[in-house]
Amino acid sequence: MTEGTINTSGAKREYAQLLHLHTRVLGQLKEIREHLIAPGTLEIIAAIRRRTGANPDNALSEITTAVEQAILALKLSEAQIRDEVMEDFEQPEIEGVTNLPATLARFLAERRDMPGFTYKVLHDENRGWIILWKEFTQTGSVRGSGQFYERPYAWIDE
After folding, report:
1. Fewer CB near the last or first residue (10 Å), C or N of the chain?
2. Largest Cα–Cα separation, the chain
3. How far is CA 25 from its chain centroid?
4. Is residue 134 predicted with pLDDT exceeding 90?
């Protein structure tokens, strides 16, 4: 039996993908919940009750409760994954940056050791800390890039 090494950069990418999936599913569940409690849905239930005498309200409330429980379970799962991921990462030390917000620090901590990941941290008077990042493939082409701001909409207030 041969022993292999653990590919931590691959694990980090998979954790990031799993957290992204959590975010997408959470958004969809919240949208479903909003549809279930929307005034239009309540009007449909009232019309059914008037026309047939049936009360679909009980079934709908059970579905709404199940969706809310799924949202709660998903948030709990996401928190556990984030805790587990963050146990493996230390707070990134960036020269000249002493007070990087937790969300930006977590973004860097999850990705900074990934091969091909580069970043630059800047400070803007209005938007606060800014992370400019790029991720390159093994062949040197850009896989992804973007910017994250501490206060992304700060410029709108002015």
Report:
1. N
2. 71
3. 10
4. yes
